[in-house]
């Protein structure tokens, strides 16, 4: 699922994550933002969410994603732009 794929990526051993025990509030804020991203992705159109995940989590190219869905590369770019905009807008709300 969405959470498993994101958690696998975030917790991957080859990704250096700085942790500072003096700032537990920063860890809490990061976890809350990740939860918000989960929620946003869960409400997103299935195709848009999958395109976002394939690009940002799995690292597929625009060309590979376009071939997988039978759409153009500009269409992939539009889906990604809209997904990123939705995530950004939600994270900036307070």
Put the structure in a nutshell.
It contains five helices and no strands. It has 94 residues and is mostly helical. Helix 2 (24-43) crosses helix 5 (73-92) and helix 4 packs across helix 5.
| Count of alpha/pi helices | 5
- Beta-strand percent range: under 5%
Biggest sheet features: none
What is the arithmetic mean of pLDDT?
81
**Would you list the SSEs in sequence order as H and E?**
HHHHH
Helix content: over 70%
Q: What class, by secondary structure content?
A: mainly alpha
Overall strand count: 0
Through-space gap between termini: 27 Å
Shape annotation: elongated
Task: Specify Rg, calculated over alpha carbons.
Answer: 15 Å
Low-confidence stretches: 11-17
Could you describe the 3D structure shown?
- It is a single chain.
- Helices cover 72% and strands 0% of the residues.
- It has 94 residues and is mainly α.
Tags for this entry?
mainly alpha; single chain; 94 residues
Question: Strands, helices and their partners?
Answer:
Blueprint: H1 2-10, H2 24-43, H3 46-56, H4 62-69, H5 73-92
Helix pairs in contact: 2-5, 3-5, 4-5
